[in-house]
Sequence to fold (257 residues):
Amino acid sequence: MADGLVNQTAIVTGGGSGIGREICKEFARQGASVAIADINLDSANAVVGEIEAGSGKAIAIGMDVSQYDQVLIGVKQAHEAFEKIDILVNCAGINTFESPDVTSINSWQKIRSINLDGAWYCCRAVMEAMMQRRRGKIMNIGSVAAISAIPKAIPYTASKHGLIGLTRALAVDLGPYNINVNCICPASVETPLLEKAVTKTFQEEIRKRIPLGRLGRPEDIAKAALFLASSASDWITGVVLPVDGGLTCCLRSQHWE
Fold:
């Protein structure tokens, strides 16, 4: 972005790895001070080291977003370090692939509590200060599973659909306070989490369905987040932005004779 994020401060949940890590690094490159919140404090500290090596400013916060008391403590730490929070990115998430007949109540509650409740907890923790300052940018990281259903992922799909509802509801209620709330929906992105979650066959079959012919990269999502965090998006709110190589725009990407 032309103006970058100089003098801006951000808190990014799930910032210790994958998409969240790349968002933290991109924001820091653009001049933001970044609070990296992750359940794995060692991972968050490692990202702090990467950012500081590039002369950026960052702190690590240990946080389980499904626990509201931890969210409040983490947001307080970010405020104490940076005095304000201009940007919130809710990137922490979890998924387990399993058939609906074996999906336990505990699995449903765990996935929902991180993907949906955690996003709300973080929004709730930062919004009052943003409302008082009459400015702020909130981004929820959804999924193409927030737009269409995917197999063997009922809790994940339901929680990500709920994230779109949360995004739109907050956009309406926080709009009068000049707070933008948007949702980025990635398709499969090349991260350590994807490598653990699915097989190479799965990845190749998804790639074949994507019109742009490749899986996503963390930097693809980070660039979209940068746009929505910058002043270039000041009149954009309540938007669900697929960053998916075209996956959700087509029934198929090839024609067979």
